[in-house]
Amino acid sequence: MNSKDGYQWTEKGGLTQGVPSIGLIQPPSNITEESTVYDVIIVGAGYTALTAARDATTSGLKVLLLEARDRIGGRSWSSNIGGYPFEMGGTWVNWGQAHVWREISRYNMRKELEISQEHSYGVNHFSLFTAAGKKTDLSHEEEDRIMISALHKFINVDGALGRKIMPFPHDETYKPDVLPIDRLTAADRLSQIEGELSPQEYGCLKGWLLLCSGSTLETMSFYEFLHLWALSGYSYEGCIEYLVKYKFRGGQSSFAIKFWNEALSTNRLSYNFNCPIASIKDSNNSVEVTSIDGRIYKGSRVISTIPLNVLSTIKFDPPIDPSKTRATNTGHLNQCVKVHAEVSNKDLRSWSSIDPSSKLLYAFGDGTTPAGNTHIVAFGANETHLDPEKDINATKKILTDLTDMNIERVVFHNWSSDPYAKGAWFFPGKEFVTSYLEALRARHGNVFFASSDWAVGWRSFIDGAIEEGTRAARDVLLDLRSGPRQY
Amino acid sequence: MNSKDGYQWTEKGGLTQGVPSIGLIQPPSNITEESTVYDVIIVGAGYTALTAARDATTSGLKVLLLEARDRIGGRSWSSNIGGYPFEMGGTWVNWGQAHVWREISRYNMRKELEISQEHSYGVNHFSLFTAAGKKTDLSHEEEDRIMISALHKFINVDGALGRKIMPFPHDETYKPDVLPIDRLTAADRLSQIEGELSPQEYGCLKGWLLLCSGSTLETMSFYEFLHLWALSGYSYEGCIEYLVKYKFRGGQSSFAIKFWNEALSTNRLSYNFNCPIASIKDSNNSVEVTSIDGRIYKGSRVISTIPLNVLSTIKFDPPIDPSKTRATNTGHLNQCVKVHAEVSNKDLRSWSSIDPSSKLLYAFGDGTTPAGNTHIVAFGANETHLDPEKDINATKKILTDLTDMNIERVVFHNWSSDPYAKGAWFFPGKEFVTSYLEALRARHGNVFFASSDWAVGWRSFIDGAIEEGTRAARDVLLDLRSGPRQY
């Protein structure tokens, strides 16, 4: 069945809203008693919420999950079309990402991964645009060489490619002299190495930075990029392996549903989808969560997994503290656009491109569909923002400007216009991380806040979401002082 | 208080058995009702057992843990002497090891790590012995260069340093052409590259291989070393970071006790220490575990975390299958000796040595004690095996032969003579992994087997132990078909 989320275009069907997903939950609610007071109400159904719901229910708590959408997964979900999953948001995972890998291992899904970019089929080259329309075709080995050279110049603030200044990426301020770096944007750092980059290096680097941040060079935090680099083992090879290489053969929703089913199997999970939240009122002994449609739900504790960019739309009583308010008013920058194209050009499987002046600045062959077609994935950032559904023909033209392709299908989710996301994965401006992350993690009375947006490690990744869901469930359990409750 | 495990020597006290540990459990039992039938009896108290006990109790199961020793931790525990932890077995952890890092993060211990080898104090060199008594002092940079050159020659069976033949270290037979490699010992592989290694390269490589395997070149599996290499990101730098760099400031027992306390807090954990097991009898509806002292304990299921090398001492009724029997009779090879020395030579903090002809073939400065002394850790393998307690003066002489040092204290645990370990961490001979691991993981009626010795990923590591404990608890929970039980 179709979720209301996402868009699909085909020649025959035209542009339609809503795509099929195994993450759709039907019926959307299992609530029978309106008056129940739950141990904990979890707001959201992304990986943070799913992890918290699973950990809380399996530990004996009575949980209500409220979700604005009709599906689980939040900013990570897949649409399975004709037996092939298109990843609408968060996609890639790696065994070096502790929280997500622990779950992949625990759900025995280790063997359900496949490789996105395979450089061994057909057109095996990389198209680099150093100016609009100025294209050079290079080998992937040349791509790697240029990218590594550029990234090393960009990142090397300490003569040790970041290892010296950020030796523990999960304890990132271990060396306090890393803190002033958060005053730099990527553009600031680029100005420090002005003249050192060749035009090709600049083009590759800009493409990579905007891919990572979904924003602009002038606004994105250099510090956050350094953190990502440190997490990835301080190397471009590591970045590729951690960020864009391994994905689920069955799609993200095949993973998310495992958490959901385990939580459900406890018979302690109540839920209501299509239920956006208006306000959260904490009266010390219990918390009332009021939905947009005016229903009131009661719990001893609340875990809000509402994303940073959406949090300011919720009314809190008592109001959240000034620091959290400033953080939610500031928000993060990532307005990444991700567009999938199924193209009949079988030889594009090993193609990739970077065109920093295009609205889809980074693209590569991501798989082969059951029809034998190539699946191309393309990303845009906020510098020249694209809303693909507003003009699907223009979107297709942007793709075919990158290289010749015969497009049979386009699939995407517009995260920027999505009221429950207001952007893609977390990527901050300068000074956000060092100013606000601690405040965002803090509890507010009986309300706990958890989101990948302020995770310690793989912030903005599925791994960070699971880290945060784990933390929140444990904090609530400890807070309720019962260990698991006796029923 | 002192555990009965471990040894300590000082000038004043001489050699004494038993050292203090916060992993000692007092009183050793909390059993009040002898007749209880538990949901699951867990045999052992290492990380596998601790993880299984925690996951099972927090999920609502009634658990009995039986342990032969007087302490938790199994082959990973620390003795805290004068405020300084000496790691008696498994020590190092890394954030790229998913299972252990998920727990470190969950228990909020991210900031409790410190760095073992620091190359910035005093005598900053590496002593390499290429023949008995033939010592050359090199810089650590030279050490790295020689080691990398030697390891690359040794590992490079596929022209891609192992990446091609074992691209998924957590799905190691993803490329079936990796399987024939398990017919090689390290010596077999060395004969394939005969003439390619300089004497210094050979010395470094032999030291590293015996450090990793605790066995001999003629018996250790090349395949298992390749797997370890793949897990470490296919690089020597990765090996250092994953295998010997980051440890707990408070010692391993400060971590193990977190699992224990969480399990205890559920009030569903019964336990009996000093309780070695004689037999396990499965009568379909329940399992009887009989201790050496003749007491019988009953459970619906049993999780045995007994190490591979000890499993053959337990009588199973009905007998375990022939494949498991062959595996337990074969056992693994690792007879590593690990000896700590507290030395008054402050300038040895950044010293290291490799002497393949010494009974302590790999040594390095591992920390600074509260007295300002240097803590040296040294390892021996099975080629020229050392039992330190049999002649402590000879042991001290072996240390001082490596470099001048004034020894004030020696601390160690003899894992080879320990009846509940019969060796150190798992390291197999050729053809063991491809022949027996699947069989070792299989359940036997109501008895489940879990041990780091046959983990999928970081086999033989703390990470692998937690992986296995997680798997076993989940398998038992699913098997009892209840999800968490309602009490």
Short structural summary:
Chains A, B: It catalyses: a secondary aliphatic amine + O2 + H2O = a primary amine + an aldehyde + H2O2. The structure is a homodimer of 487-residue chains. Chain A is α/β, with parallel strands linked by helices and 487 residues long.
Account of the 3D structure:
- 2 copies of one chain form a homodimer.
- By secondary structure, the first copy, chain A, is an alpha/beta fold.
- Chain A folds into 2 domains: 19-77 and 252-331 and 427-479, FAD/NAD(P)-binding domain; 117-244 and 337-414, Polyamine Oxidase, Chain A, domain 2 (Alpha-Beta Complex), CATH 3.90.660.10.
- The first copy, chain A, contains 13 helices and 21 strands.
- Chain A has helices spanning 47-58, 98-106, 140-155, 186-192, 199-213, 222-231, 236-243, 252-264, 308-311, 322-330, 392-402, 432-441, 462-479, and strands spanning 7-10, 14-17, 37-43, 63-66, 78-81, 84-87, 113-115, 126-131, 134-138, 246-248, 269-272, 277-282, 287-291, 296-304, 315-317, 337-343, 352-354, 362-368, 374-380, 407-412, 447-449.
- In chain A, the strands form 4 sheets. Chain A has a 9-stranded mixed beta sheet.
- The longest helix of chain A has 18 residues, at 462-479.
- The radius of gyration of chain A is 22 Å and the shape is globular.
- The two termini of chain A are 36 Å apart.
- Residues 483-487 of chain A have low confidence and may be disordered.
- The A-B interface holds A 58-60, 95-99, 101-102, 105-106, 110-111, 113, 115, 167-171, 174, 233, 238, 265-267, 456-457, 467, 470-471, 474, 483-484, 486-487 and B 58-60, 95-99, 101-102, 105-106, 110-111, 113, 115, 167-171, 174, 233, 238, 265-267, 456-457, 467, 470-471, 474, 483-484, 486-487.
